[in-house]
Every structure is written in structure tokens, then in C-alpha cells.
Design brief:
The chain is of the alpha+beta class and about 110 residues long. The protein is about 20% helix and about 20% strand.
Length: about 110
């Protein structure tokens, strides 16, 4: 079972910021910025590469949740990045789809 599935099943501890039936949001264990959250669908979907159309509405849920969390946690006005690594070639290490939500002065240096 992948590490995020173990976190979702509460077999491994994580700092949970938000949770509902479909999504869990945790703090990244190795933060790259002052705010570094991971938004993870509870269903095991490997990546955007393998996403099926029936699961596509999950992405809408996650993106909107990112917007709400940025407002609720008070960093919407300073700006944020929502990053989705898809595939090992793009730096995806955990094979369970997840978005990185980052904020803080450090992220200005993360240029594409
Ligand atoms: P990616 O490279 O897009 O697959 O990102 C995986 C992210 O998961 C990395 O930023 C890791 O620091 C993070 N991560 C790995 N294991 C854990 C964990 N047990 N709890 C929280 N974050 C984790």
C-alpha cells in the first residue's frame, strides 16, 4: 500500500489540516516553503497520467479546496502556487495523485 493510502487509513501519522469523504489535506513532512500542504484524493489514483474521466471531478474539488484553504489559513492575499507533478520524469515520487499547495516568500524562486 502506498504511503498516502496508509496516511488516509491512519496507519501512519500525519498533520491533517482538512479531511472530508473524498479528500485529505496534510502538511508536507519536508516543507519547501513556509506553507507546504498536500491535497490528496482518498481514492488511490496513481497520477494525472492514469486519471480516468469518471474521477476528473475530484480535481475540481481539490482545486476549489485549495482556494478555500488559502483564504481560511490567511495566505490567499500573499499568493500561492498549486503544483501537480505527474510521473517520475516530472519529479513525482509518491505514486498517488496529489497537489502541492505552497505559499511564502520562498516560492518566488520556484519559476517554471
Ligand atoms: P512528489 O515529489 O510530488 O511525489 O511529492 C511527494 C511529497 O510527499 C514530498 O514533498 C514529500 O516531502 C511528501 N511526503 C512524503 N512522505 C510524507 C509523509 N509521510 N507525510 C507528509 N508528507 C510526505
Amino acid at each position: 500500500m502506498c504511503i498516502f493510502c496508509q496516511i488516509i487509513k491512519k496507519e501512519i501519522k500525519a498533520e491533517i489540516v482538512f479531511e472530508d469523504e473524498e479528500i485529505i489535506v496534510i502538511k508536507d513532512i519536508n516543507p519547501k516553503a513556509s506553507v507546504h500542504l498536500l491535497l490528496i484524493p482518498k481514492r488511490h489514483i496513481e497520477s494525472l497520467i492514469t486519471l480516468e474521466k469518471k474521477d476528473a471531478s475530484l480535481l475540481q474539488e481539490i482545486v476549489f479546496r485549495a482556494k478555500l484553504l488559502a483564504e481560511e489559513l490567511g495566505f490567499a492575499s500573499s499568493g500561492y502556487k498549486l503544483i501537480l507533478n505527474s510521473g517520475q520524469g516530472a519529479g513525482q515520487l509518491v505514486p498517488h495523485l496529489h497537489f502541492h499547495l505552497l505559499s511564502g516568500s520562498e516560492i518566488r524562486d520556484f519559476a517554471i
